[in-house]
Amino acid sequence: MFVFVAGSLPCKLRDAKGCSRNDMSYTATINVRSCDRGCGTAIVEKNSTTSTKIALYRWPVMRDECAQKYCRSIAMATAIEIVPNPANEWRLDAPKVEGWVRDVRPGPNKHFMVSVDTHMTPPVKLFHERMDSKFHDLLPKIEKRENGERYIIMPGARPERLIDFNFEGDDLVRSKSGADLLAKDQDGTVITGLTRIADQDRDGVDAEVIFPNGAALLMWSSRNNEMVDAQAKVWNDWAMEQCAPFLHRCSPTAAICTADIDLAVAEIERVAKLGYRILALPNKPIFGEHDVNDINYNLPVFDRMWAAIQDHDLAITYHVSTGRDPRAARGNGGAIINYVCHSLSPTIEPIVNMCASGIFERFPKLRAATIEADAGWVPWMMQKMDEAYLKHHFWVRPKMKNLPSDYYRSNCFASFGEDRAAVALVEEFNLENNFMWANDYPHHEGSWPYSAQALYRTLGNDLREETRAKLVGLNAARAFRFDIPEKYRAHS
Length: 492
Hints:
alpha/beta, TIM Barrel, 5-stranded antiparallel β-sheet, 32% helix, disordered N terminus
């Protein structure tokens, strides 16, 4: 992770001896202090001859003013440079950009930036501890075979052999970042208190949309709807517990079991009351291969769900690798085939379902986004939807007031990372209001912690300044209801 040089503290502190003080007193011992306002924050300071490590432990309740000041104090901390390993040195390469009014590097002249795809890993035992014991045998688990090899076993999917990698440099940092609040740093220090905020600050990110990570992202990989719904409730409760004091910049997504519409509507009503603004729906309601007899999002049976989502002004997201097992190919090229064909491309389907079936005519205020599938395919998809609507008019139903592509422009979004095809076509196809940038923290396929370089490579010099501002933050603020801080409003 990072070594921090102490900045300002969030509020008046009291040390273990009851002595009040407003500053950090550097000693050779470990001092544990709690927030003087009773918000449940404790700061652990560890000094050595070369550096100072600060970890923040947060209980479920933190006062808003303390949370905001905590964020500011962490933002003021200085992080030591992360050195990439040789295989990742290309990540530091960036062309010279010219004509940019505002930058994407941290500093006073920066764009408002939102990463619409990031991940957070819950504690390993979370689902076992919070779910009914009748589900425990169905949860993903690690199985060690007689030959010593380890496999992850999960319902609805073939066993997957786990391969241990000796990560180095920035790969090692990524592999240990974005974890749950009881994660351990590389030196064994317990790190809590959403240290991801400091990670994102160094990447220029002002706000983020947070999805499950690890086993939690597998919660839809079952046809046992009661179990999927139970897992979703555990994630939804836990994620909000962690992010509630930081919702102005850390907005988690609420997982919904859409295979059972009654369960889906009930959970949508519940998470709306918890303070969620964004939902995560699987790319297919019912897990597994396609069956024409299964319900799917294009059918009017889902209208009750769409109505509940619209009534609460919630945004819809479809994240890659949900709805069916993406590991469909093996052997030569399997990793690439699975990534492109079975993880990314199925994310197109739910958006076409919505644009082609009249959903946005019946529910015009819905907002739906594809996540981590990039966006270069969107212009092609729009053309093909319109082509089918016009040339296959004798088969098409329902007849709609507008073309499918019009509903995409008015109601849909797509995240992108290093996708030069998307950027090359965004203005030509009038999609400046639809694409949203993401750093995919902390995944290896993402750009963190070198997002500025990635954005220089991807955005280049050909876009209008207004378009850049929309892509890196303003579109996300509109789609996911982030407030734009005052310092950026003059430029929004």
